[in-house]
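re: ur question from earlier - yeah i can do the single chain one, its not a big deal. heres the input i used so u can compare w yours
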Amino acid sequence: MSSHPNSLKNLKPFFDTQKAQAAQRNSVIARKANKAAREKLRISVEDWQTFKKDVVEDNDMTSLDVLKVLMHKALSEDDFDTAADLAKSLAEFESPKLARIDQTTKELSVDDMSDDEINEALKGFASDTEDA
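and the output i got, formated as tokens:
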């Protein structure tokens, strides 16, 4: 009886000695990177706890203050992309765009109104827009 060409018996092992050693080296590199990331996160948590005790409990911080602190931290770590994104967010609140104005929309049904009543209503709308 012949075996099928896709039979499991025809599979060759993927790992040889060199591939196994390379995978082992990559695993060590990944473990070291993960350990460093955990250590950095632990330091960040310790910094936050110190910051919280020294600053937050003494002052009422707003969300803008938090964004500013995060931006300064990103700048100190040379993470300019994050700092730029935070600066954009802060700019929206510190100096709003001039094109943004409050608009009020009034609806008026003129089906049951006479021409004089419509004219009076239009004069009222015109005076409302001049006052604003």
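The helical segments are 17-56, 63-76, 80-94, 115-131. not sure if urs matches, ping me
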